[in-house]
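Bench log. Compound arrived from synthesis this morning; before running ITC I wanted a structural hypothesis for how GN1 sits in the protein. Inputs:
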Amino acid sequence: MSNPQYVPAVVPRLEIPGTLTDAAPFGNGHINTTYLLSFLSRDSGSPQKYILQQINTQVFQEPEHLMENIFSVCTYLRQRVLARGGDPEQETLTLVPFSNGEHLLYDNEGRCWRCYRYVENSVSYDFADTPQIMEGAGRAFGRFQMDLDGYPAEKLWETIPHFHDTPSRYADFCRAVEEDSLGRADSVQEEIAFWKSREADFYRVQPLLEEGRLPLRVTHNDTKLNNVLFDRDTNAPLCVVDLDTIMPGLSLYDFGDSLRAGASTAAEDERDLSRVSFSLEMFEAFTRGFLSETRSVLTEEELALLPFSAKLMTMECGIRFLTDYLQGDTYFKIHRPGHNLDRCRTQMKLVADMETKSREMMDILRRCL
Ligand code: ADP
Ligand code: GN1
Ligand code: MG
């Protein structure tokens, strides 16, 4: 065992017949704590890998509900993949039980754990280097949505209430500014003013949902590029991961959030803002991929709002980062002081850039249709 310090105490309680050979922190998620475990299988003698995750229970306060959603959705997706002749081990997540037969385990310190089989020969990207990657991500999230088209939405628990309710996010942000519990608001007046001057935009989509003009679907709700696994050799999209936020939602949330994260020309936490812009080439590639799967079900009203959804989801994420900064960085994992503020500033740069490109985005959408 090369890294004994990274072996969580729950590992012996996993129902895995074999010997642990390695364990290491894995991935760049902002919420859960992920480990990659390597085993030597007792049955076949071959190496096998697993993804063990400590669920962030500050963010997901009802882990049993969350796991119920995931188990049921994975079972459903498995059937869909089998029906089209695909390989469910590569195209969906497979949960691994603990020795008590459950998919969720609390350790002695009250931490909460779950485990998946590692999707073999996969890779995820924090940043899209080529339009092919973005088109692949578009296809992956589009297909994911189509696969869940017939899933009974009323069966899903709402794992984070009001997750993409942008008026409610905006109200949380205003409250954090008002309370200013750490005295940080004075130093970020420019950022606060930027978001406040766009208040009306936060209120544009939610009423359409409430009036029934936009259909409620089963959506992923966290469609960051690194939540898609690609084939390490061919870069073909394989599998959508991070299913914690599957809930009833709008198609616009999944489309918009992917572009926020994947069409930026720089990392989400880039400090040199001159490197941050919104790439129309990436927008076109993603749109093409997404529509190739979803075109037949999206309504005219949904289609018309796709370009705006990229801006809306970027605005939402921007105020979430700033709110967390004002409240003392308790939600998103940070790796340096001011990390959430840096993230907020890249979102501002992207929003401002999208505003100058909105007509071109509409033209591209028309071309893709
Ligand atoms: P977080 O909620 O913290 O973002 P994720 O579930 O997205 O956690 O996992 C973090 C990263 O681990 C993902 O971005 C992906 O790269 C990788 N990952 C997650 N599940 C698997 C899996 N079953 N097989 C291979 N890689 C995975
Ligand atoms: C979080 O879990 P991860 O890193 O894939 C967050 C998303 C944000 C994203 C910003 C449950 O995603 O909503 O858009 O960070 N997930 C949750 O990078 O809050
Ligand atoms: Mg993730």
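What the model suggests: The pocket of GN1 (ligand 2) is lined by residues 29-31, 59, 222, 224, 227, 242, 244-245, 268, 317 (CB under 6 Å). The chain has a mean pLDDT of 96.
ITC booked for Thursday regardless.
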